[in-house]
Specification:
CATH architecture: Orthogonal Bundle
Number of helices: 7
Mean pLDDT: 94
CATH superfamily: lambda repressor-like DNA-binding domains
Largest sheet: none
Shape: elongated
Strand content: under 5%
Distance between the termini: 37 Å
Order of helices and strands: HHHHHHH
Low-confidence stretches: none
Number of strands: 0
CATH topology: 434 Repressor (Amino-terminal Domain)
């Protein structure tokens, strides 16, 4: 097991998207015969996806790759909401945060 937030966030995002491990893996370009097993290993923390693989998974889940590396649930939610906002909404968020 690993202390990385990737495994936790990956499973939460997959479940929220209503995808099986196998279907997510296949959509992200993992061989269909190993997709389920590899996604399971990523979700349990046995293995971690490399950055390119995680980027492809993130694209399927319509999330930024940074979401999976967020150290807290609050930061992950902020990254998710920010990424789903339109440009005008992003500007408002940044102004409210003092950026």
């Amino acid at each position: 097991m690993t202390d990385s937030p990737v495994s936790k966030r990956l499973k939460e995002a997959r479940v929220a998207a209503g995808l099986s491990q196998k279907s997510l893996g296949i959509a992200a370009g993992i061989d269909e015969f190993s997709a389920s097993a590899r996604m399971n290993q990523y979700e349990t923390g046995k293995h971690a996806p490399d950055y390119l693989t995680l980027t492809r998974i993130a694209k399927v889940l319509k999330l930024p790759t940074a979401y999976f590396y967020a150290e807290s649930d609050e930061l992950a939610k902020l990254v998710e909401l920010f990424s789903r906002s339109k440009k005008s909404g992003r500007i408002v968020i940044l102004k409210k945060l003092g950026a």
